Amino acid sequence: MEKQNLIIYNTLSRQKELFKPLNPGHVGMYVCGPTVYGDAHLGHARPAITFDLLFRYLKHIGYRVRYVRNITDVGHLEHDADEGEDKIAKKARLEQLEPMEVAQYFTNRFHEAMDALNCLPPSIEPHATGHIIEQQQLVNQIMENGFAYESNGSVYFDVEKYDQAHHYGILSGRSLDNIKDASRELAGVGEKKNQADFALWKKAQPEHIMRWPSKWSDGFPGWHCECTAMGRKYLGNHFDIHGGGMDLIFPHHECEIAQAVASQGDQMVHYWMHNNMITIDGKKMGKSYNNFITLPQFFCGDHPLLEQAYTPMTIRFFILQAHYRSTVDFGNEALQAAEKGLARLMEGWKNLKRFEEGQKVKGQQPVEMKYVDELRTKCYDAMNDDLNSPIVISHLFDACRVINTLVDKKASITAEVAEALRQVFHTFAFDILGLTEETGQSNKAREEAFGQVVDMLLQQRQQAKAEKNWALSDQIRDTLAELGFEVKDTKDGFSWTLNK
Q1: SS3 category, 73
Q2: Taking CA 64 as the corner, what is the angle to CA 60 and CA 65, rounded to the nearest 5 degrees?
């Protein structure tokens, strides 16, 4: 296919840049995955769908992509700080389970939700607990280069010393003085030289279940270490894209940059990409705020804030309707509008699939190949402009308008143009946006309507019998039998089953 010039917004440079991979034809991409101590919520769905869109598009335009997304199953302490209990260990203690039981259960649940949302699995999905040695090696390198220190069996990154040699805050735009001022109120200064310092290795307290031996202490790695260590292991010292939610810019991704520079002398990542937040009443949706709605709750409608259940494709479409760098506020009205918009798009696709070459009628306006070519170009232009999925969707809606003119016989089309239009529609709606034809809730609604129609016919049969109109009664029964329905008369009226 024709070469596409993809432009993406780089958080590091704070501007859009032409994407140029470090290794021509190949892309290395690392995305921060979930901490598996609870069900994924709508806020987790957004980065998953955003970077699935990027993964799909990079592959579509001809790149070989190695997509790495981690599972955090140790080291993520409460409140994202260096004190408190490990989030997974705490859940295990409350549920009286082994921590790895908790991690495995919610990893499985996360995968089920991702499958439902039609997110492609990553090329590699490393677990933090499976890479303790690599994280210890990273800590060693940072210490040997003089940017970390040991304190009571724990190891901390010396942010002030690093800032003197490099610049801490390059990604978030924060200065060290501002970071110090903001962190003075936090507890746990005791072991650190400065509160802004962050843990590379934490000594485990006696009651801490998750621990590994090291030369410093029996303990566990700091939360920020895993992504630097695993990104380097699977993508090398330098790779193209690192992604995640913008809530990770500071401190997590800022610390990742510092760890990379402190250990190897330069940055690992060329492009930093961040999706914006899902909000609820204007506040970030998240477990730490206790204002989240899990994906399983969305799928079954089981939450006080939900007026109904929403299919996984409705959720995906809802997220894709907004540009990944804009905020999206949760609301039932917005989700219901997305549901209707998706149904409209799928109806257009079904009509297009059924459509065959129209008969030319005088006065009809033909749909020409030029329209299809322009549609294709517009969709690529939108995707190349920092993955502008809402603009792609608007162009697909325009295609639905054209399809409706064909259905209404107000326009004509040749078989060749119809096939080209089907290819463009399928490429962008299904291959790139990752939508699928509606299943689940919409099928259930159709089945209910289908059953009501059969009941109505059988009630008419009952009325015909009561009026001794045996011919109509037999006609309804025989017609339903030909269609595969078995009708039984009962003392209360009737019952039916479909045998086909």
Answers
A1: coil
A2: 90
Contact predicate 114/121, CB 8 Å: yes
CA-wise closest residue to 275 among 263, 284, 287: 284
Backbone conformation region of residue 118, classed left if phi is above 0, alpha if psi is from -120 to 50, else beta: left
Reported as a single tens digit per residue, the pLDDT across 261-318 is: 999 999 999 999 999 999 887 787 876 677 889 999 999 999 999 999 999 999 999 9
Cβ-based burial of 33 (10 A; exposed 0-12, middle 13-18, buried ≥19): buried
Under DSSP, is residue 272 helix (H, G, I), strand (E, B) or coil? strand
Going from the C-alpha of 87 to that of each of 77, 287, 300, the distances in angstroms are 6, 11, 27
Identify the CA nearest to 35 among candidates 94, 121, 99: 99
- Beta strands 278-280 and 269-275 are unpaired
CA 103 remoteness from chain centre: 20
For residues 141 and 263, the answer to whether their CB atoms sit within 8 Å is yes
Do 407 and 351 meet the contact criterion of CB atoms below 8 Å apart?
A: yes
Phi-psi map region of 169: left, alpha, beta (phi>0 left; psi -120 to 50 alpha) = left
Report the distance separating Cα 163 and Cα 262, nearest Å. Answer: 10
Q: List, in order, residues 6 or more apart from 231 with CB less than 8 Å away.
A: 30, 68, 239, 242, 256, 268, 269
**Hey, what are 327's tokens?**
């905020």
8 Å CB contact between 255 and 198: yes
Question: Which range has highest mean pLDDT (145-154, 438-447, 471-480)?
Answer: 145-154
Which residue in 205, 199, 198, 263 sits closest to 229, CA to CA?
A: 263
d(CA 317, CA 46): 11
Among 29, 11, 63, 6, residue whose Cα is nearest residue 240: 29
**Is the CB of residue 10 less than 8 Å from the CB of residue 80?**
no
